[in-house]
Amino acid sequence: MSEDEDERKSEDRKATVWEHLLELSRRLRAILYSIFLITVAFMVIPGDPSVFLNPSLLLTSYKPLVVEVLDVIRAQILPGNVVLIGGELTSGIELYLIISVFFGVIFSTPVIAYEIYKYIDPALYPHEKGMIYPFTISFIGLFVGGALFGYFFLVKIMIEALVPFIYWVGAQPIIYVMDFYQLVLITVTLTGLSFTFPAVYVLLVRAGFTNTASLTRNRRYIYVILFIITALITPDGGPIADVILFVPIVVMMEIAIFIARRYERERLEEEMKNWPTCPYCGAKIPPDEVFCPKCGRSLQ
Questions:
Q1: Which residues pair with 84 in a beta bridge?
Q2: What is the span of the domain harbouring residue 182?
Q3: Which of 57, 239, 289, 296 is the 20 to 30 Å CA partner of 144?
Q4: What count of other Cβ atoms lies within 10 Å of the Cβ of residue 8?
Q5: Are 122 and 114 in contact (CB under 8 A)?
Q6: Are residues 256 and 183 in the same domain?
Q7: Dist CA 157 CA 237 (whole Å)
Q8: Phi, psi of 176 (to 5 degrees)
Q9: Are 62 and 44 in contact (CB under 8 A)?
Q10: Looking at 79, 98, 123, which one is the last position of a domain?
């Protein structure tokens, strides 16, 4: 079969714009259905499974799953000397809906990732597909690690560092319930995302969009920018919280540089297979070089 015939068949197999839109709408519906169903599950399913064994408890002990989650967050994060108040009559229902949707999105992440991958999969080359799996695994792992770090460590430090200032100005530590849970969820989410910087950086290096030399050459400026980002993520935690978040990000970025250099060496070794060989010393010569980098002799 000729090359022209192969190209014609390849063109015939290409989907039309309308088919792409239909495929996109189908993927988006699957994502929205997943978020909706999980959100409703958090809003409706009892947090205590024992009520299914004794239906009479539904009238006296029924608490939706999202309420049980809020109880856990409050017990683990909120200091004992801090009191939560509603502030507004609608605060309860607003928080109930926001937290349910938040967990609906979080627990739909596998579905979201799968639908996105299946949509872009036909357009990926084999070597690009080889980047997707390690990136996805490392991204999820770093996000979860960052979220746990933010939840069990950073948020507590932020709150405990701020409460004494309330006493110092002659007030009592009474916090709006919406402010408290928003602080927890936003900090945990942004901390998780900030921990994924190394995975994104390694992916960019592997794809050829950047290189490790540019980062190491401008390391001091990039780390200043990262510190500013951590300060924005922890606006209420003071410099201590900023440093606590900044240090692990720097450590992970240095590890990411080390890993990215390995990929650069592998790519260079692959490219060198097609480089010409010096007729005098047998060394590999980069394209467009006039002199051998090893023996220094002219190749012309």
A1: 175
A2: 126-273
A3: 239
A4: 11
A5: no
A6: yes
A7: 7
A8: -65, 135
A9: no
A10: 123
pLDDT for 120: 82
Q: What global pTM score does this model have?
A: 0.75
Structure tokens at 89: 């009559």
Residue 198: closest CA among 117, 255, 248, 115:
255
Residue 280 falls within a domain, yes or no?
no
Instruction: Look at residue 299 in the predicted model and tell me its pLDDT.
Output: 62
What residue ranges of the chain have pLDDT lower than 50?
1-13
Residue in this structure with the two tokens 């909706």, named with its chain if needed: 36
Token match 């921990």: residue?
Answer: 195
